[in-house]
Amino acid sequence: MRRTDWDAKYQLVPGCGHGHEVALAVAHGLDATGLNIAPTGLAEARAKYPHLAERFVTGNLFDPPEEMRGAYDVVLEHTCMSVLCLRRYVRITGVASISRCGAEVS
Predict the structure, then answer these.
(1) Which pairs from 77-83 meet CB under 8 Å and 24+ separation?
(2) pLDDT value for 36
């Protein structure tokens, strides 16, 4: 991961699972939050990265918590969306609702 102009932006890692991507982003100075629908994976993430526990949030990407809507500039994603077909990916309202206007999905 390379630091870019994202330094002052907020990142979301959807489907963060065990939290590895969130930990990597934070280690590189990024302000990342992990979202996962599965409480078991989040419990493991919090246990593995206790210093980042507050960054792991239980929720549904397709119906995110109100406080997450419009809060993120960048969606750091490489596994969550890949299981969805492209047609469904294009229609995802969850990513749109949590992203700020002009946000990047990478």
Answers:
(1) 77/13, 77/14, 77/15, 77/105, 77/106, 78/21, 79/15, 79/17, 80/14, 80/15, 81/14, 81/15
(2) 93
Whether 48 is in a domain gets the answer yes
Q: Is residue 71 part of a domain?
A: yes
Residue 95 lies in a domain: yes
- Domain assignment present for residue 18? The answer is yes
* Cα 10 to chain centroid, rounded: 10
Range of the domain at 72: 10-99
Dihedral angle computed from the Cα positions of residues 64, 13, 18 and 59, in that order, rounded to the nearest 10 degrees: 0
> What would the pLDDT profile of 69-85 be if each residue is shown by its tens digit?
888 888 887 766 665 55
Per-residue pLDDT at 84? 57
User: What total of structural domains would you count in the chain?
Assistant: 1
